[in-house]
Design goal:
By secondary structure, the protein is α/β, with parallel strands linked by helices. The chain contains 3 helices and 7 strands. A 5-stranded mixed beta sheet has the order 5-4-3-6-7, with helices on one face. It starts with a strand and ends in an 18-residue tail after the last strand. The C terminus is likely disordered.
Length: about 150
């Protein structure tokens, strides 16, 4: 209990003070605010990924893009030429004149698993090529597709 020191007689008890002291509460709230302000940026994932936005215009393709293809039998092809995985770095260096900053367009057959595509992306990374673009087919407009035959 808190008391008040008012002038009074020596035999008189101190009067009760019924006011709530909010200073410790404010101190705790400020400490929590600082903790959350420091911890919030640490909880975000910061992975460097070259993500396109859905409403952006397509990027202009280079005059001679470098296509690396993973076929359904897991063999590689650089352009239209078959390529052994061991010769990937030397073939890419020859095609790009050693420019590891050039974007590599990676295509994969639909039957190729995600894990195999990641293996090829790791081979590209080990070769020093960090700019990789994944190539896919653009969806065909609904009006261009023939109407499905109804089941009778």
């Amino acid at each position: 209990m808190a008391g008040s020191l008012k002038a009074g007689s020596a035999g008189e008890d101190l009067a009760d003070n019924h006011e709530i002291n909010v200073t410790p509460f404010i101190d705790v709230m400020l400490v929590l605010l600082i903790i959350f302000m420091v911890a919030a940026p640490l909880s975000t994932v910061d992975v460097a990924v070259d993500l396109p936005t859905s409403n952006s215009q397509p990027q202009p393709r280079p005059s001679e893009p470098v296509f690396l293809t993973v076929k359904s039998d897991l063999t590689l092809a650089l352009g239209n030429d078959p390529l052994a995985r061991e010769a990937l770095k030397s073939a890419l260096d020859g095609k790009t004149n050693g420019d590891t900053e050039e974007r590599i367009f990676l295509r994969a057959d639909q039957a190729v698993s995600y894990g195999e595509v990641m293996v090829v992306m790791n081979l590209l990374r080990e070769a020093g090529y960090l700019k990789i673009a994944l190539v896919g087919l653009e969806p065909v407009a609904a009006s261009a597709q023939p109407a499905a035959n109804p089941v009778q």
